[in-house]
Write a structure and sequence with these properties.
Blueprint lengths: L3 E5 L6 E5 L8 E6 L6 E9 L2 E8 L5
Bound molecules: zinc ion.
Length: about 60
């Protein structure tokens, strides 16, 4: 069962939740469309002490 982790859209700066991968699949990046403004972004998932943390960047941005 996937848990949800909050992420902030780099385009509209609204926060929403995305399904996090399991810790052994991190770090990873996924392409995602913002649920608020529908713009594409890249979400990077990293694991900190068994918590999945997501950070998002626009397609033209670097982390
Ligand atoms: Zn957005």
């Amino acid at each position: 069962m996937a848990c949800l982790t909050p992420v902030t859209c780099p385009s509209c700066f609204e926060e929403f939740e995305v399904a996090a991968p399991s810790p052994d699949e991190t770090p990873c990046t996924v392409d995602y469309d913002c649920e608020v403004c529908c713009r594409p972004m890249v979400i990077r998932f990293v694991c900190w002490d068994d918590d999945i943390v997501a950070e998002a960047a626009g397609l033209g941005d670097s982390f």
